[in-house]
């Protein structure tokens, strides 16, 4: 069993570790409906691209259970399920995994029409469980490929939280760090605090500390100082959506780090599963960037930290051009100097 379990399915309900309460309290929210799971995604009780994809898959199972007994016709069942899917997908627009997880259940439901409701629901539950377990094994494979790129000793800068908490378990960027550390490498992590939601200080620092991986917390604006003084050997981040040409949408501030890494000749790596690629987006410019509330910037846990009435902007993600990325680490292999050709080759590879 994984040390950190952000998502637990007990057969009836989805239990989500409330990431707003960390690092002080470890509380699970119990969801018995798709609406409740959707609300947890909206409020970021569960967050991180792969984690919201997995949560959405279970939300669809809960929706199917609710819809199935009241409908006679298969088509009506599918229509209702697709309606729930559309609502879920629109909750957070940038992370492609949310649509991906939802669609996996929809496609499965379509392929099973004609089955008895009991059998159909069982298959859908198994599909969600497979998505959950696959996510963990995919992360471990990413970790193994990524660890091979990490020298020892190595001082690694990471941004946001692309760890166990952002996935079903283990993590993508933090999965690489875990694998490198547990293979015996001398690793030190610098974690950006990641304003405004503080995924770095509240979540990444908590996760790494819990596992005994050496970590130092820095404010976002200190990254340039640490890079320019030669204290960082590489940068590793996760991704929310990767375009066909290798442009990466990830937490706001990622682009700044990539520019700084280029300036100081420090390798900049992205770790992400194949499910984070969106080949329908030719380049980063067509990726929708989620804007979140002004209150996340003007307030810290409901305490005002800016003058009343001040306007704020809160884009939650930015786009890092492929040219700034040394490699994208996937479960299918490492894509060095990502571009359309090497990305399509790697995605086509059967593991
Ligand atoms: O707004 P969040 O916390 O959901 O954003 C998370 C990130 O940007 C992560 O880096 C990304 O989802 C990858 S998680 C493996």
Q: Care to describe what's here?
A:
40% of the residues lie in helices and 17% in strands. It has eleven helices and 16 strands. It has helices at 34-42, 49-67, 74-89, 96-111, 117-147, 173-182, 199-210, 223-228, 254-263, 295-298, 340-348, and strands spanning 7-9, 14-17, 28-31, 154-158, 187-192, 215-218, 234-237, 241-243, 248-251, 268-271, 277-278, 299-300, 303-304, 317-320, 327-330, 333-336. The strands form four sheets. Strands 6-5-4-7-10-15-16 form a seven-stranded mixed β-sheet, sandwiched between helices. α2 packs antiparallel against α3, α4 (96-111) runs antiparallel to α5 (117-147) and α5 crosses α6 (173-182). The longest helix is centred in the middle third of the chain and has 31 residues, at 117-147. It is globular and about 65 Å long. The structure holds 5-S-methyl-1-O-phosphono-5-thio-D-ribulose. Residues 47-50, 95, 160, 162, 166-167, 172, 199, 237-240, 250-251, 316 line the site of 5-S-methyl-1-O-phosphono-5-thio-D-ribulose. Residues 47-50, 95, 160, 162, 166-167, 172, 199, 237-240, 250-251, 316 line the site of 5-S-methyl-1-O-phosphono-5-thio-D-ribulose (MRU).
